[in-house]
Each structure stands twice: as structure tokens, then as C-alpha cells.
Amino acid sequence: MASSRPKNILIGATGSVATIKLPNIIHELKLKDPSVNIRVVVTSKALQFISRDCIPAEVYQDENEWQLWKQRGDPVLHIDLAKWADIFVIAPLDANTLGKISSGMCDNLLTCVARAWDLQKPLLFCPAMNTKMYLHPITRKQIADLREFGYIEIRAISKTLMCGDTGIGGMAEYKTIADMTYAHLNNIKVEHQ
């Protein structure tokens, strides 16, 4: 059944080299549904891997957080973004931000959106980090914490990573991310291998 309005997708990108795939993710989402609205929240570390100008969507970063707020009743960006979005997809989710979200920290715009997220709406996350970081016991615990919150993991894949190592920790393929996003937007039960 078609929705009465276009869907709103919020993408979060963190400090992983996999951030370079952000334009591909957005392109694939738009290819599947040109009417979808996409906004992107980036951490300062994500911008080490991609320029805002290369992201084909409205982009928000930490410096935007309090620009409109002057007094009580004024907009608060992380709250507004969390309300606006039908789904939040964090792709890639680096080890640092994984640790922050799993422990409840909110020291940047992206982690504030995650903390303000309505748990009745889907939040998908795509871990992306070096194999040694991914295999560290704390990573397994932190991913389990996010899953316990009700967040949906799009599992990392094995591949040759940008550092030259081969192993688990690569972000899922952008087509997989788009497919999972739409499956959860449309409330279809999916199992990701």
C-alpha cells in the first residue's frame, strides 16, 4: 500500500573511510524511490573522508546544532531531525561512535539524534572498522547493546579493507543498505545474513 507522503530518511555518517560510499547509498535510495526525502548528519571525523559538496542531500553537522536556538520554544536541531525522519540509518558506524551510542553519550549532533530517537521507529546501523577493532570483545558487547535497544544491525562484511588488511569489518554493500532501509520502511520482516 502506498504511503500518502514521501518517506523521510535520515542518514548518519561517522569517521570511517566507508563514508566515501555515502553518495552511492543516497543514489541507490533515490533510484528505488525518487520521491524519498533524504537528509544527512555527519560527524566532524566523517568530513575527513568526504566533502559536504560531494553529498547529494541536505547535510547537517555539529556547527548547525544550535544556530536556530536562541530561547525556549526555538527549534532544537537534533530533536527536529529525530521527529522528521521515518528511519535513521547510520552508515558507516565507526568504533568511536558505536561506543558513544552504546553508552548513551551525546556529544555531537549525530549522537544527540540517536539519543533522542523514537524507539518505535527503525534505526539501522552499519558497523565499519578495521578487522582487529571489529573482533575486539568490546565491539561485540556494544553491538549487542544497540540490538537490545531495538536497533537493527546491517552486519559488516569480510573484504580487503582500505588499510590493506583482509577480514571482517567492512561496511555492508550500499545496495544491501538500501534494500534493508526500504524493507524496514515498509515494515517487511527481513533477515540479513
UniProtKB/TrEMBL annotation:
Gene Ontology CC annotations of this record: phosphopantothenoylcysteine decarboxylase complex
Domain Flavoprotein: 7-178
Assigned keywords, A-Z: Coenzyme A biosynthesis
Signal peptide residue numbers: none
Listed GO biological process terms: coenzyme A biosynthetic process
Keyword Nucleotide-binding: no
One Gene Ontology term of the molecular function aspect: FMN binding
Family membership: Belongs to the HFCD (homooligomeric flavin containing Cys decarboxylase) superfamily.
Function noted in UniProt: Catalyzes the decarboxylation of the cysteine moiety of 4-phosphopantothenoylcysteine to form 4'-phosphopantotheine and this reaction forms part of the biosynthesis of coenzyme A.
Protein name: Phosphopantothenoylcysteine decarboxylase
Protein species of origin: Polypedilum vanderplanki (Sleeping chironomid midge)
Lineage, broadest ranks: Eukaryota, Metazoa, Ecdysozoa, Arthropoda, Hexapoda
